[in-house]
Design brief:
It is built from 16 helices and three strands. The protein has a three-stranded antiparallel β-sheet, with helices on both faces. The protein folds into three domains: about 40 residues; about 90 residues, Receptor-associated Protein, CATH 1.20.81; about 230 residues, Receptor-associated Protein, CATH 1.20.81. About 30% of the residues are buried. Helix 3 runs antiparallel to helix 8 and helix 4 packs antiparallel against helix 5. It is mainly α. Keywords: Cell inner membrane, Cell membrane, Membrane, Transmembrane, Transmembrane helix. Belongs to the GSP F family. One of its GO terms (biological process) is protein secretion by the type II secretion system. This is Type II secretion system inner membrane protein GspF.
Length: about 400
């Protein structure tokens, strides 16, 4: 039964809107009138144009990562319980609290009832369901294990969100310290230093070199702050424009992988995403070449993605997956060894899951280690800058005191 979006008013003149099932738009209006509502707008839930949908998304109406994980988990539970897909989508439509999610589920259900697969229905909403999500759903439908794939996909989304949240929280404190330090230094240079040092400049006393340098820097900050701001904006724009080009981005990504500290973080984060996605795809029965291609699309580093492309060529030529990944010299040896063990025992999926879990824990440990180093370094750097400013202010006072004595 198709789903219809409606907007109506009740006897008290209060506006109501939602989604209901009916044979036709006329039947939907009749249903609304039987409930004491006066229908104003009744339209199929999937009838909104792409422009209208993009306009709503531009206003922030889209699925959050948390909502995506919850919907995936609920749909997986309903399908594993034996509920047909259209009825499972109807349940999600009815129990959704947010209007946008209710309309989204109703639109997907309308597409499914129209004869489309779930993956094709999700393809109409690319901002809510990215390409890798749709590829996993299509693999689940093709193998008849949609419930299992959605359950593993929900696990993957939840673990990815948890890992991302831990990394963000770990770097939150150093970021706050950096912003506060920058604000304090700017305040000292633009207000405190001129107020104190100008007193000694009016006495025509020979000022120390450090004080002269600090006065020049203070004057530059006060009079040319707008030029500094424009310069930062221009530099950021040029860097982003350069990194949009394929060759510079590839060179930058290769450098990142070899950079101290940050290189291991980038390598570990992409390894977790690659191993998790590949594990879900192999569990769903997707052929290894197609699974490798889909898993490569989840990598944010183009250099690692290029290495996966090389590995795909080797696997197509008959090389084992472990040897193909080992030849790239990009992924951690633990991942390669676990895949080799899985190939020997015939259970690559379990080894991929173990590799993803182990690398996630290692990534979390490295993140905490890096932030534990950054915090004292930032405090020392801030203290050093403030010390230099204080010395620039105090040196004229000390020299004047020596002259008086």
């Amino acid at each position: 039964m198709p789903a219809f979006r409606f907007e109506a008013i009740d006897a008290a003149g209060k506006a109501q809107k939602g989604v209901l099932d009916a044979d036709s738009a006329r039947g939907a209006r009749t249903n609304l009138r039987s409930q004491g509502l006066t229908p104003l707008v009744v339209e199929p839930a999937a009838s909104r144009t792409r422009g209208e949908r993009n306009q709503r998304l531009a206003l922030g109406r889209r699925l959050s990562q948390r909502e995506q994980a919850i919907l995936t988990r609920q749909l997986a539970s309903l399908l594993i319980a034996g509920l047909p897909l259209d009825e499972a989508l109807a349940v999600l439509t009815e129990q959704s609290e947010r209007d946008y999610i209710r309309e989204l589920m109703a639109a997907i259900r309308a597409e499914v009832l129209g004869g489309h697969s779930l993956a094709n229905a999700l393809q109409q909403h690319p901002k809510d369901f990215p390409e890798i999500y749709r590829a996993l759903v299509a693999a689940g439908e093709h193998t008849g294990k949609l419930g299992l794939v959605l359950s593993r996909l929900a696990d993957y989304i939840e673990q990815r969100n948890a890992l991302k949240q831990k990394i963000v929280l770990a770097f939150t404190y150093p970021t706050i310290v950096t912003i506060i330090a920058f604000g304090i230094v700017t305040f000292l240079l633009s207000y405190v230093v001129p107020q104190v040092v100008n007193v000694f400049a009016s006495t025509k006393q020979q000022l120390p070199f450090l004080t002269i340098v600090m006065m020049a820097l203070s004057g530059f900050v006060r009079h040319w702050w707008w030029a500094m701001l424009i310069g930062v904006v221009v530099i950021v724009y040029l860097v982003r424009a350069t990194l949009r080009q394929a060759a510079p981005r590839l060179a930058f990504d290769r450098w990142v992988l070899t950079a101290p500290l940050i290189g291991k973080l980038v390598r570990g984060y992409n390894t977790v995403r690659f191993a998790s996605t590949l594990g879900i795809l192999t569990a769903a029965g997707v052929p290894i070449l197609r699974a490798l291609q889909a898993a490569a699309e989840t990598l944010s580093n183009n250099a690692m993605r290029e290495n996966i492309d090389d590995a795909i060529v080797r696997v197509r030529e008959g090389t084992s997956l472990s040897r193909a990944l080992g030849n790239t010299k990009t992924f951690p040896p633990v991942l390669v060894h676990l895949i080799r063990s899985g190939e020997a025992t015939g259970d690559v999926t379990t080894m991929l899951d173990r590799a993803a879990d182990g690398e996630a824990r290692e990534l979390e440990r490295r993140t905490m280690f890096l932030t534990s180093l950054l915090e004292p370094l930032l405090i020392l750097a801030m203290g050093g800058v403030v010390l230099v400013i204080v010395l620039a202010v105090m040196l004229p006072i000390i020299e004047l005191n020596n002259l008086v004595q």
